[in-house]
Amino acid sequence: MPETQVKSLLIDNTKCITCSICVSLCPHDALTIVDRVPEVTGKCRVCGLCASSCPPKAITMAAKKFRDESLAEEIDGDIVVFSCRRIKSTADACVISLLCSARIDISLIADAFMKGAKCVIVSTCGKNCRNYPGSEEAKSKVNAFKKILKAIGESKDRILLVEGDFAKAVESVKGKFTEKVEKADLLKSITLNRDLRALIAKMRSITEEGNAYGEKIPREKYEKILDNAIDRALKISIIMKNLNGIATVSELVKKTSLSYKDIMDTILEMKKRNLIEIDVGDELIVKGVSS
After folding, report:
1. For the chain, what is the domain count?
2. What is the pTM of this model?
3. Which residues form the 4Fe-4S ferredoxin-type domain (predicted)?
């Protein structure tokens, strides 16, 4: 079985890349790599930070109602709030209750926009978070998502982060956006980019706490690295969307807003990651690789 249950979590052995991000982020030191796969060896409090930060999405919650697909089914309405279950509010909006704000996944936020939401609010407990720094990780993801929105030409104000009662935040965005996100499909594709997810997952710890040797990367420098990764993920998503199985570089130039150089640089990067195959004839031909 590729998917094995580890107490409160499900680990897909075929997807796990043994990056150990889940182990380093766990607020309760509950995870350890055993035989190249994460296992719960301490007390897991089911905050979901490991699942929401896993680059290849190899970790999910054992309880079906807490999985991405189940949470996505609850999404309905122009304003969607993802909130820690401890926060009470009388706000008039679609509220998705999470075990902890640490559970928020950038791909789950993209699901909200895919289903027609015009604005998303993420509500945390701040420093009162029982799974701290889970709330700070949620904040980091929201900030990264703002960058992704900007990259596809959308307002970063379509997503807000608040602490505690979110009623005022809901009122502040009512009627602010009249149109749905036009490129929600690209948004979803970008949030599934494994390299980008890894950078976002590491962002807060690397810039604030440092690596295993105590070395930190300045926030400004990391932001630039993240911006470049988002730009690369966007170009990959655009090419994959317009590939339709097979296409020449000239055809991709016509179908997309990308320059010839952008496409060449991007497909070479995609080839390195085994995302595509390339044939050389009278012209370079790009083929999609079945996953």
Report:
1. 2
2. 0.92
3. 7-36, 41-64
